[in-house]
Design brief:
The protein contains seven helices and no strands. The protein has 235 residues and is mainly α. The longest helix has 40 residues, at 126-165.
Length: 235
């Protein structure tokens, strides 16, 4: 157990907790009140009336994507001594998720542009522009659900490495493996069967995995890594 791993543990803890706050605040406090389900006109009016709030939400999402890249780097430093290949795979899965998360604000900015007053938009009726803007916002959620299997795979790999490393409690690691694998299963099922969320609520897809990552972030920040590693040497 070297100093780089210990420093990376603190960085991962901070990145995980800050990222959680950013995504919850941006999505549930700033964005969700503006988006009216199945109502393009009211959604458009809300966004135009609260453009700064809308843009701050997008900024939170961009900051979350940056934090995800910081987190994956720190996790790789911590877990590479356990198994370098799996640690790299987990980092790459999480990188794909971060990239897709960063694409989502582009869709939202496109929606804002459609609701603007540029002269070239005059060729389309306002209700058409509102509908197109709502489609762009819906596309932002699609970006998340396309990225969710990658996030779940990254978390599953990392949870397995946590289990092999003995860096965190085994019970927590086992919960992480199960919760993350469950997320992968739900994500693929939802992409294949769009009505799957009527059987399993959307929030149940990733909430157990998010809880695992949140607890691990607290553990790394406040408890840290053990003084002596009992992990198996990498191949």
């Amino acid at each position: 157990m070297d100093s780089a791993q210990r420093t990376a543990a603190k960085v991962a803890g901070v990145a995980g907790l800050v990222g959680f706050v950013l995504v919850v605040f941006g999505n549930y406090v700033l964005l969700e009140p503006l988006v009216i389900p199945r109502n393009a006109a009211d959604t458009a009016r809300n966004i135009l009336a609260h453009q700064t709030q809308f843009r701050v939400a997008l900024t939170c999402f961009i900051a979350y994507g940056i934090g995800a890249i910081v987190l994956l780097t720190a996790l790789y430093v911590i877990l590479a001594p356990v198994n370098r290949g799996l640690a790299l795979a987990g980092a790459l899965f999480r990188l794909v998720f971060a990239m897709l998360w960063l694409i989502a604000p582009l869709n939202s900015l496109a929606a804002l542009r459609l609701l603007g007053d540029a002269s070239y938009l005059k060729v389309l009726e306002p209700d058409r522009l509102q509908a197109l803007a709502r489609v762009q916002i819906a596309g932002s959620f699609d970006d998340y659900y396309v990225g969710l299997p990658f996030f779940g795979l990254a978390a599953t790999v990392c949870a397995w490495l946590w289990l092999k490393s003995n860096y965190i409690p085994k019970g927590l690691s086992i919960f992480g493996v199960i919760a993350s694998a469950w997320c992968v299963l739900c994500a693929f099922s939802f992409l294949i069967f769009p009505n799957f969320n009527k059987i399993v609520n959307d929030y149940i897809f990733d909430s157990p995995m998010a809880l695992f990552e949140l607890v691990v972030s607290f553990w790394l920040l406040f408890k840290g890594l053990p003084r002596q590693s009992t992990a198996t040497a990498p191949p």
